[in-house]
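Check this.
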Amino acid sequence: QVQLVESGGGLVQAGGSLRLSCAASGRTFSSYAMGWFRQAPGKEREFVAVISWNGGTTYYADSVKGRFTISRNNAKNTVYLQMNSLKPEDTAVYYCATGRNIVVVATDYDYWGQGTQVTVSS
């Protein structure tokens, strides 16, 4: 059984930083791409970032490019999302997910974590 557990969310002021972590178990972590998505109240889940199985390829949503960095440590079965220069519009529940390809569509990911809340105050 695949399990993804996010951590690191919280309340931060605009301009601040947070680092999210997602610990994976139950599958060969290093064989799969890992993505981050977010969902704000009343909005659809949206793509944030994705990283290839070996970390060699990354892709970001335009809204976070230059501010967020996705990385992974396959020895620790963990993927990270470093979020800098946070804005109030970044407020959302952030989810990690695992999939076979580097894609931006949520339905192409087969396992999801429970989410971690990020709140950015103005």
